[in-house]
Fold these 4 entries.
Entry 1:
Amino acid sequence: MGEDAESPKINHTFLRDYVTEADVISTVEFNQTGDLLATGDKGGRVVIFQRETEPKGESEEVGETGDSGEYNVYSTFQSHEPDFDYLKSLEIEEKINKIRWLPQQNAAHFLLSTNDKTIKLWKVSERDKRPEGYNLKDEEGRLKDISTITSLQVPVLKPTDLMVEVRPRRVFSNGHTYHVNSISVNSDGETYLSADDLRINMWHLGITDRSFNIVDIKPANMEDLTEVITAAEFHPHHCHLFVYSSSKGTLRLCDMRASALCDKHTKLFEEPEDPGSRSFFSEIISSVSDVKFSHSGRYLLTRDYLTAKVWDLNMDKGPVETYQVHEYLRSKLCSLYENDCIFDKFECVWNSSDSVIMTGAYNSFFRMFDRETGRGVTLEAWRESSKPRAVLRTRRVYTGGKRRRGDVGVDSLDFTKKILHMAWHPSENIIAIAATNNLYIFQDRVNPDHTQ
């Protein structure tokens, strides 16, 4: 994949003309089939999009572009409300930090959503029939006077308009003292983990009033605190393995078979620091903001402030691949520290075959890297190219040398337009990009088995 590679095309775009803080998208997640896409925002809302089973266009046009159905709004519900911790006199935001889908077991769908403190399990189901002919209730649902009932009838189901019902099934609360930054569903389908700055808990999906603490890095004296947990995830196939990342740039692989409390890791993944390049910002920019297992379970993908790295589970001495996302910002770290951008937490994702990785940047840019060639491409999610089936143009940040038409200078980058959250379809080349309060869905314009 290079700068001259063919770009994906826009499948669908959900844009809002005005921006309020509550509308800013804070998480994006496909379900296991890719037919549903959930987004959470800072206002505590969850919006679920469903993929149409049949494309709207004629076969010739659709066949040429590889389009196979758009995503439309399926359901919207309020997941979390603002709360207040009276013991600590702290406001608890309603912002949705993470959404994770559970493997589908029946016609209904289940998802977990969390804010800083409380995790909720939601059931999403469809209803196209309603019961009629109750014996003890009238047509409006009111109880009848039993003395007036002279005969009994068998209730029947009558067809009705399709309704999507979203109901809370479990509320997992009081499990975290600090802000929840990660949730991950285990491959056993029965448990999940939740991580905050200092602890990781494991929950059973059927038990809400207790969890089991599997990692605790809180020191006896908080003045001795040197690092915090930034992200955690279960292995996609082995239910006893999980990994968590830290603000020091390290990864710890833990095996729950070795010990119930996984304070002692099985493997430590760490890249040796070059003493010659150390600066005031070194520790800040080395903090890992996201970690993802590959679909195969062989590799780990991490994102720090300037780079994305791929690690082999069998090689803990350092990453096997390092990709420069926006190296041109190294000279701007001082100003980025002053405006707090240096603390932005970028996410990273794999494509379905683990051959391409994707992560975000500033100026509404996002980056894709082909692991086979090591080459990257910069694309932009912006309103001007948001027409359906428009082809995305590759972009380039000018850092010196010959300047091409359309290049963007480093000093012209808009740091308020940041791509932090994204998701990749589990089996196709469809990606969802959250840009502030806008959701972009892009689809590969050619062979769906090969990402451009």
Note: Confidence is low (pLDDT under 50) at residues 1-6, 56-67, 446-452.
Entry 2:
Amino acid sequence: MSSHEHRFRLFSSVEFEGQLYMTPHNFIESVTMSEPRSTRAWRSLTKQELEKTLSDTPPVWRGTSKLFRNLRERGIIAYTEYLFLLCILTKPHAGFKIAFNMFDADGNQMVDKREFLVLQEIFRKKNEKRGRKGDVDKSAQLSMQLYGYHVAPINSVLKKDSEEFVARSYWDILRRCASQALFSDLAERTDENIMTDTTLLVHFFGKKGKAELTFDDFYRFMDNIQTEMLEIEFLNYSKGMTTISEEDFARILLRFTNVENINAYLENIHHCIPDDKGITFDEFRSFFQFLNNLEDFAIAMQMYNFAARSIGQDEFARAVFVATGLKLTRHLVNTIFKIFDVDHDDQLSYKEFIGIMKDRLHRGARGYKSEERFTSFRSCLRKELASR
């Protein structure tokens, strides 16, 4: 299995017609914890139970940054939607405007359910390209558990019933042809009639699946889910206060990375920031918004490398602003430097910082670091002892 597949199976808790699903609460745990709080057999849902569960899903225009926390166990998230949500959490907002326009195959500034299902097919195909080694039957069984089907019936999502596309300009014609070239092969396996309705589909397109999604609603959803997951992480450490300590900020940054000796970084905080001023939620959020633009920031930082200039705090803050438009507070920048300035020369170790933060972006999808592997081993050991 890929690391994404492994993590989805590890945290999912429900099953419907042979396909595995996460609940909203499962998804929260998967992006904020190393492993589930409890392991139990997958709970099977009947059709009536699923319909009752989905009836609690609010429409997208009533969006809130507490959607997943409010729903908790009352919802289901498919594997392809899990990949989609992870992408939302780790990508810059600007890229989604481009993606939205590409999925808007008929150019009406809205995306309907059939157009949106192409997105899921893209994530599925991208995942399958990585390939799975091992037993063919087990691979087929895993595919069935994750996607619910092997090969779906052919049905084009680009063609509207008794509708023809009226080109408004040369650019519309070019865009229409590009959309057909991009999505014609993906549409072959996409059929909304055989898809199980999920929390996300009902949230976006209503219980009957006839509503259409505007970019404003989609952008608000994207901003809300990013805020919600950051609030959960922040509140886990703030204990009701308005700030978290610089040490806790370092712990959060270094989670889900391959850093072997976290204590060395924490020691930097103890020695270099003796007075605990704290990190506010606004500072916390602005840092992770910057992190989602890490690739653009890396390009800006390379300019300093090419010019053989050292990377001090002022250069770092300027590169962040140029690449992302975000102004990080001086205290936040200073804290970042103190965490990663291992040799205490007040210069950023560029390669180390970029590498560690890229790991952090994937939130555990690249595998577990040493501390988490040891935790998993201890869990297995406890289960083995309990069974004897």
Note: Residues 243 and 280 are 5 Å apart (CA to CA).
Entry 3:
Amino acid sequence: MNSKLTDEQQTAICSQLGNVKLNLLYKASIHGFTGEAFHKHCDKKSPTVSVGYNKSGRVFGGYTSQPFSQFGGFVKDDEAFVFSFSGERLNKYSVNNSSYAVRMTKNSGPNFGDTLILVHKDEQKVYSNQSSFTGYLYTKYYTFTAEKMHGNDLDLTDCEVYQVEECLQFENPWRTVTWTSEEKEKLMERIKSYKPSISSVSEARVLLVGQVGAGKSSFFNSFKSIFKGRVSGQAINGTCSTSVTSQFRTFIVKPEHEEKPLPLILCDIMGLEAKEGEGFHVDDITNIVSGHTPDTYQFSPSGPLHSEAQGFCKNPELKDKIHCVTYVVDASTISIMPQNMEDKLKAIRKKVNLHRIPQLVLLTKIDEACPLVKKDVTNVYKSKYIKKLMQEAASRFGVPLSFLVPVKNYSEEQELDMNIDILLLRAVDQILHLVNDFFDEHRD
């Protein structure tokens, strides 16, 4: 069936309802101008938009969030409204008494409070309860003029009913990703052949920061799995409420059957906890990014590493410092992040900014946050919900959306998935671009 509504008219209606699209259920010129045909195709469907077209070319109708039925009574609907078009401009008339917003009549089509009825009494007619004296409706349920609604032309040429459906995805992805094995191999080769732009540095050092359970260690394990050719683990991860990581650890990845490790060191720290006095101490961040913190340093929530402590590196070189800080954030909990946690992250960002270190945000567990992505990870940049979460995360962290990358870590999978790998590799590729930006800022 082809819709008679123009794209502009559909857009105008949807703008009143949110992020939705219209799915045509009933078309009187095809199914019949009868109440029976209308109810057959539209009962128990909601929300709906009903549209009438008359011989004068007028377009008008109504919206209800309630499902249609045939029981004969009125139904309350606070969200209902009727409308008419003046060209492409929508004129909206809200319900005055929501208890009488919609009536469920057996032998008619859509009935908006006995005020506006499409396909009235099994006829190709529209009915409106109009006062002949004023030109305004006598009933109190909706208020509009018959002239503005349908031009006093009661002869229908068609009647359509659309179900309003939440639009979960963009028609086209808002970021371009090539989902092929060739792209995966290209990304892997680019990471393996990466060379820092400063000769005194041989590897990029990247710090992972995140709330307990966000997936820092899982991200490293997932990235390592790609180059091992199998799902594997090195950094300890888990799902408990306190941090599994208790030390400052540095990890390298050596591709399977190769002697030389990747030119990348991923640094893991104790997870952040919202409660004061627990988890990673924010003041430790300065020692870490400045290169003072030794590998396997045991974190203490009571205070940061002291300059006289054993192993403290007093004169770190550029190769010992952190070249990019990557925040790991759980997409499924970003909207309910405790204020204390947000304050800790802001405090860390403030300290990192003082060192002019680039920062990236990884949004993990995207499949748990969005059913569309759980079904197929390649929908990540088609999902409107994921983009909304990314925009929220960008706002909370104070970074441009371009510095925020969604990934899915390996969790329940036992075999590698090319599409998961591509997202992970793209994230690391972006990190290495930011590392080069750091080196550009810190040349002698």
Note: The first helix runs from residue 7 to 14.
Entry 4:
Amino acid sequence: MGIALILSIITILVRWIFSKRRGAISYDSSDQTALYIRMLGACVIFKQLFSRDVRVRSQVGFEPERRGSHPYLGVDFRTLHSRAESAGSIPARRIRRLFSFQRHLLSSRLLRGAPHLNPLHILDEDYCGQAKCMLEKVGSWNFDIFLFDRLTNGNSLVFLTFHLLSQYGLIELFQLDMVKVRRFLVLVQEDYHNQNPYHNAVHAADVTQAMHCYLREPKLAQSLTSFDILLGLLAAATHDLDHPGVNQPFLIKTNHYLAALYRNTSVLENHHWRSAVGLLRETELFSHLPAEDSLSIERQLGSLILATDISRQNEYLSRFRTHLDENDLNLGNASHRHFVLQMALKCADICNPCRPWELSKQWSEKVTEEFFHQGDIEKKHKLEISPLCDSEANTIASVQIGFMTYVVEPLFAEWARFSDTRLSQTMLGHLGLNKASWSTMEPEASGSSEDGESDPARASEEPSSRALTQGSPES
């Protein structure tokens, strides 16, 4: 009775929220269902009940009970990549949260221009000072997001995105409430699963920083409007929101409710977009704008996030290549600017192989760890192992060499044609060096056959490319 009562109360509250927030914005059934799930997912009580009992979904009316061979494994994605922790680590997390709260208080005072009469601990202020110094070089391609995340005590996404919104003058220009902006960014950061080795808030912060670097490129800086820049930064910060740490094929073959909701099409990207829209409405970040403007922001945000679907890589790349071949990209045209923003976000999303080796190697290890963990789950439940997720058949080096060859190099070669700058050449330079470094760890991946025989890796280019697309980080 207790659980049923709580669920009834939550259902009534969420329906009331939607009835109050609709305004002039229309929904279709899939939109409403997606946002309904997002709002319920934000309730801690519901999340706990959901993780304990999969049947909650049918009780609330999200979907009927499934009778498939693998009806949603009941995996709690919030703990999917968690490791066993000792009892002593719990107080440590609480201490980190307290320090984070102190930093939020300090930054809020500084934003209001109020002097802090009661200084925080010297060590805490020292860390804030170092983070502030790093932000002065936020446009550097060598920006160490891992160090910045440590200096901000795990709040890299909040601090970096807020800084960029302020630096571009977007808060003042769009008359955004700083409290709402802060709350939105905090909720965004909290909605990332930081137990995921790769798809977490640090990755989102890294993509946002890369997006900033691209926005500063001459062609874009001279053409993009403030609205374009706002969309680009928000899309980068939210592009993997609430990522479960597994890819789309896993969700489909386990009959996950998200796969059914989005009809097995761009499942994760649609969920990231709807989650972002849910937070925008929850915080009422754009509530002061006309309803049609808010709806336009949500739709264009979705268009950008959906472009990160790696399974549509060839579609976007072919279109980009055609524009460059015909030299008909007109950045005075709003639709062309939006397309370039899509390509910029795609580049930012998979730019890790183009970073300096010290940073690129860390990302490679993290994404492969996430792959292999998914493969272990698939083995455990006797599912078909997804491409690149079998730790016995793949290595970090082989995964990275294939990903660079078939996905990263073609994209960044075209980006360099579009924006032939020092940054583009730097990225291609790092890409070549990093690929060579991985090749030394995987000699058979780059070695050619003797006696003039063709390279077997090249001969199987098409199937390798498809496998990489299905098993790539963004799938």
Note: DSSP finds 25 helices and no strands in the chain.
